[in-house]
Design a protein that fits this description.
There is one protein chain. With 468 residues, the chain is an alpha/beta fold. Helix content is 48%, strand content 15%. It is built from 15 helices and 15 strands. Strands 4-3-9-10 form a four-stranded parallel β-sheet, sandwiched between helices. A four-stranded antiparallel β-sheet has the order 5-6-7-8. Strands 12-11-13 form a three-stranded mixed β-sheet. A hairpin with a 4-residue loop joins strand 1 and strand 2. It is globular. The relative contact order is 0.12. The structure holds adenosine monophosphate and zinc ion. Adenosine monophosphate binds next to helix 1 and strand 9.
């Protein structure tokens, strides 16, 4: 298996630290809003990487955090007049629903930054002891960037160029020794959540959380660290500096980054306001279509989101699902049970598409070519099967399709349409749960309905629902 490593800017053979095991960390979202489909790209891409590794027989320890302390969360909390924790918990729950609806598997561990403060204090203290960090007079702790000689190795940036770029920027914390130094711990501001520390009452910088959570749940050295390409600098560069300065070991062997999802060829982002939430897309499409759309491009390429491309993805997915549904029909109505010798040859020959699929995925997770192999398999099946086919052949071919689509996280069977009465019944149950203040159950029911394509809207006149 070959993987493109941002560190070396080359495809490299994947060799895990421990045979048969993969330790993988993916930087997760900052939870102050519903996730947008740009955030969904790394979720879908790295879930597929994980699924492929598992298919190859690796045991994957997959850790992905939620950043639940951040300026944007605090701002939103102030706007709504609630606590930051209320905001982050709400959007973590919503994010998990979206992930389930996109068939993204839950991580082995989903750590929360606010629950790992002790580990952060410990790592910062070690960095100070080792001379890699220093507290300023106001209690801010900075990382001494120039002391880490390999700084810039991931983003391939040169420190002097970086410094030149900083020249015009006014340094607000005047106690900073060098404009390149970055924050590990910062003093609280009025009304903000804070923790006690040896330096000041305050909160951690963003980068330290991933160094700490990765070490706690995966160890000092890991195989893969991943995220969107915007994280290469400064986030991942800073993570490397912190972890390697603290632990004295190579932090991660392979750094994998997804390209950006654009809209009208412009970066989709919350700050630009040109984004769609996953929830909005789920109102128009089965989220399997979104997943299929994302995987139709190579993960490192920029991907432009458009209604046309979503339609194309929908048609492609339908073609595959029709092939699968034909096989189901054939196996249900087959006149003979056992596979014939001639059919055995058909089955064997179909293995060639599995090989093609694997070769594509082995080449830096080329899901676009993997999907082509699935299309070819479907075409082959359509020409080699008819109502005279045995049940065994139809079933075996179905399994073959299911296996490949399963690696992509694509579910072959369309969800059965949920009946109106069932919906009404679940809504009534949800109302009862809410009355009893059993919000977990109420949320669960909303999730169940969302998965079946039913969107609830709580209005003054009561609960309204519609089909996506
Ligand atoms: P954030 O919540 O902004 O920290 O982002 C969470 C994850 O989503 C990170 O891995 C980002 O790199 C990724 N991400 C954000 N926007 C996009 C986008 N438009 N396309 C692809 N990935 C994105
Ligand atoms: Zn991170």
């Amino acid at each position: 298996m070959r993987v493109y490593n941002t560190l070396s800017r080359q495809k490299e053979e994947f060799i895990p630290l421990e045979e048969g095991k993969v330790k993988m960390y993916v930087c997760g979202p900052t939870v102050y809003n519903l996730i947008h489909i740009g955030n969904a790209r790394p979720m879908i891409v790295f879930d597929t990487v994980r699924r492929y590794m598992e298919y190859k027989g690796y045991e994957v320890n997959f850790v992905s955090n939620f950043t639940d302390v951040d300026d944007k969360i605090i701002k939103k909390a102030l706007e709504e007049g609630v606590t930051a924790q209320e905001i982050s918990q709400r959007y973590i729950a919503e994010c998990k629903k979206d992930m389930a609806a996109m068939n993204v598997k839950p991580a082995t561990t989903h750590p929360l930054a606010t629950e790992e403060i002790d580990g952060m204090l410990e790592m910062i203290s070690t960095l100070i002891e080792k001379g890699f960090a220093y507290p300023a007079a106001d209690g801010t702790v900075y990382f001494r960037t120039r002391k880490f000689e390999e700084y810039g190795k991931l983003s391939h940036k040169n420190l002097d160029d970086l410094q030149a770029g900083h020249r015009d920027i006014k340094i607000t914390g005047e106690e900073k020794e060098d404009s390149l130094d970055f924050v590990l711990w910062k003093p609280k501001k009025e009304g903000e959540p804070y923790w006690e520390s040896p330096w000041c009452q305050g909160r951690p910088g963003w980068h330290i959380e991933c160094s700490v959570m990765s070490r706690k749940y995966l160890g000092e050295e890991i195989d893969i660290h991943a995220g969107g390409e915007d994280l290469i600098f400064p986030h991942h560069e800073n993570e490397i500096a912190q972890s390697e300065a603290c632990n004295g070991k190579v932090f991660a062997r392979y750094w994998i980054h997804n390209g950006f999802l654009n809209i009208d060829n412009k970066k989709m982002s919350k700050s630009l306001g040109n984004f769609f939430t996953v929830r909005e897309i789920s109102e128009k499409y089965d989220l399997q279509v979104l997943r299929f759309f994302m995987l139709s491009a190579h993960y490192r390429s920029p991907l432009n989101f458009s209604a046309d491309l979503m339609e194309a993805a929908k048609n492609g997915l339908d073609r595959i699902r029709n092939g699968a549904s034909n096989l189901k029909h054939l196996s249900k109505n087959a006149l003979t049970e056992q596979i014939t010798d001639q059919e055995r040859t058909v089955l064997e020959e179909s293995g060639r598409f599995v090989e093609k699929f694997e070769a594509s995925m082995d080449d830096d997770f080329n899901t676009a070519d993997g999907i082509s192999a699935v299309f070819e398999l479907v075409k082959y099946i359509n020409t080699k099967t008819d109502e005279t086919s045995s049940r065994e052949l139809a079933e075996q071919l179905y399994q073959r399709m299911e296996q490949l689509c399963g690696i992509l996280g694509i579910i072959l069977e369309e969800k059965e349409e949920i009946l109106d009465e069932e919906i009404e019944q679940l809504i009534a149950e949800r109302q009862a749960a809410r009355k009893e203040k059993n919000f977990a159950r109420a949320d669960e029911i909303r999730g169940i309905l969302l998965e079946r394509g039913i969107i609830l809207e709580d209005t003054r006149e009561g609960v309204k629902w519609k089909r996506a």
